[in-house]
Amino acid sequence: MTYSKYSDTTNSKVTYLLGAGASFNAVPIWGNQGRSMIEVGEELVKIIKLKFNKINSPGNNPEMYYLNSLANKIKKFGQKAIDFGSIDIYAKRLFLLNNEKELNDLKKCVSIYFDLWESGFMDCSKVEEKGKKKYESIDKRYFSLLSVLLEPGATSPCIHSNVSFITWNYDLQFEKAYETFLPEKEKSLSDLITKINGEDSGKKILHLNGYRGVFINQEEEFEIVDKSKFSSVEAYLKELIGNRDKLDAEENSFQVSIKYAWEMKSDSLERAKQIMKETNILVIIGYSFPAFNRVIDQALIKEFESGADYKRVIYQDPNANFDIVKSLFRNTGKAVELEKENTNQFYIPHEFLSPSKGEFFVI
After folding, report:
1. DSSP classification of residue 308
2. What is d(CA 193, CA 200) in angstroms, rounded to the nearest whole number?
3. Could you please report the per-residue DSSP string of 88-100?
4. How far is 209 from 223, CA to CA, in rounded Å?
5. What does each C-alpha distance from 236 to 53, 121, 213 come to in angstroms?
6. Which of 137, 209, 299, 336 could form a disulfide with 120, with the two C-beta atoms 3.0–4.6 Å apart?
7. Rg of the Cα trace of the chain?
8. Cα 280 to Cα 312: distance, rounded to the nearest angstrom
9. CB atoms within 10 A of CB 5
């Protein structure tokens, strides 16, 4: 008597593919992102005037000029996001025009915007969206998910070895939620990410588009503002001023921290392909498969379909375009399952919760 390998789920590898909707309760997405960038810029102008205005020398205040310039750029790119439909589309325009300077500027402003939005220190991060809801500092769905996926580790909780995350998001909602399960906050962003990945050289979470908060200067990575010094918006702005020589140096780059599908570095893509190839169960959350990511998405799906034996796809999105998803997964051998109703929590596959040896037959 033996068991069929095609239904054995005792060692199933689960991968979560996250889109903007996975941070819906904490981070503005789609059209709301552009509007919130404008709100952040406007709020910054108020704070700068209140905290950095040197009354005795209003005409000679380079610090205030520098910060106001950043605030106005954030507002400008927010308006471009509205005009073009998303910040990604406007970034593609700059790429096609070979406008590297403005594209790098856009990435810097997007990174600073996400720093400030996710900090919870901005008044505008608490405003109601269309009078219906308030944004959370951390999307609470990550808490319930991590409470199941985390296991005791030698020094800190670690993500189950069979679970990986691939995300298109710049935000650090996953990382912020994970940090709440630690005895104390990490001093730096790099320390936090290292702790999440642990000894897994393959990484437990891979940001395809990069993530906010870091930049490269002369091949060395820096945090825009040191995590341990980010205690308020005023403190953040003071650190921005202190870091501006590195931050604005001509040779610096936000290519590593914020990048787009058409700029994908081969190491990130190859790692994502390897994860997908080993995946048995793919859970897609809040991702609309936009056209400008399609080449990468199809490459990842191809690896998923050609890999391990047992395959299952769950698509969780209340605004799902199910026809697009079904058209992308043609060779899986299993129908894509739509989880549209229960979106208050992230889906956890029953194969993970209750693994089984599966069906057996006599030989």
Report:
1. -
2. 12
3. HHHHHHHHHTT-H
4. 17
5. 16, 10, 12
6. 137
7. 22
8. 6
9. 10
Residue bearing tokens 């029953």: 350
End-to-end, the C-alpha distance of the chain in Å comes to 6
Nearest partner of 168 among 293, 33, 348, 26, judged by Cα: 293
Provide the pLDDT for residue 127.
Answer: 54
Place of tokens 């202190």: 242
State residue 281's pLDDT score: 93
Give residue-wise pLDDT tens across range 88-121: 999 999 999 999 889 989 999 999 999 999 988 7
- Stretches where the chain sits below pLDDT 70 are 1-8, 54-59, 123-133, 199-202, 217-219, 250-256, 265-266, 308, 320, 331-335, 340-341, 356-363
What pairing do the DSSP bridges indicate for beta strands 163-167 and 360-361?
unpaired
- Closest listed residue to residue 15, CA positions, set 343, 270, 261, 282: 282
Q: Domains for the chain: give ranges and CATH numbers.
A: 2-23+138-207+264-361 (3.40.50), 31-135+226-256 (no CATH)
Nearest-angstrom CA–CA distance, 74 and 124: 14
Residue 124: what pLDDT?
62
Range 340-345 contact pairs with CB under 8 angstroms and sequence separation of 24 or more: 340/316, 343/316, 343/317, 343/318, 344/141, 345/141, 345/144, 345/145
**For tokens 């308006």, what's the residue?**
79
Task: Indicate the pairing of strand 14-18 with strand 163-167.
Answer: parallel
| β-pair type (337-339, 360-361) | unpaired
Beta strand ranges found along 140-244 (DSSP E): 150-151, 158-159, 163-167, 205-207, 214-217, 220-223
Residue in the block written with tokens 């109703």: 341
Q: How far is CA 82 from CA 232, 291, 341, in A?
A: 28, 18, 29
Separation between Cα atoms, residue 224 and residue 247, nearest integer Å:
7
Q: Which two tokens stand for residue 3?
A: 């068991």
Return the ∠ at Cα 239 (arms to 241 and 121), rounded to 5°: 120
Structure tokens at 324: 């697009």
Find how far residue 100's CA is from the centre of its chain: 23
